[in-house]
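Sanity check

After download, print the first record. It should look like this:
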Amino acid sequence: MIINVGSTNKVKIEALEEVVREYPDVFPDIKRINAVKVSSEVPEQPFGLSQIVKGAKTRAENSYKLGNCTYGIGIESGIYEIYDTWFDTCVGAIFYGGPRSVGSSMSMDSREFNLIGFSSAFPIPNKVGKLIQEKKLNLGQALYELGLTSNPH
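Expected structure tokens:
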């Protein structure tokens, strides 16, 4: 089994490698995980659940379309606001181009997705969420601008 993951982000690749190691029954016979650069078709910092889901699905499908793989996987992080509270979350999507699995597809269009899942969300300070929205920054840039981290990336 070969997996194309639609990202070259080291943290996302390491997370997928850990999942594959921890759940060998779900991912048997993994021969290789290819980190591939693909478009997510969403902003660098996705805002709102619709953009986060779209980014994960698009990354999964685009990585699958590169070929030579069993699955395409997309991982997208983003922020959203609910009841004046900002959250950061991550969405993962698995695409293989075959028929949908009953009960596990959340596809809202004709493309075939076997799984879409959400991480736990964690709150971020309101001033961070507002700065991201106002200045179109990513989370790391906003944290740096507010002096909450010394890492400018």
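If your output differs, re-run the checksum step. Summary of this record's structure: Residues 101-111 have pLDDT under 50 and may be disordered.
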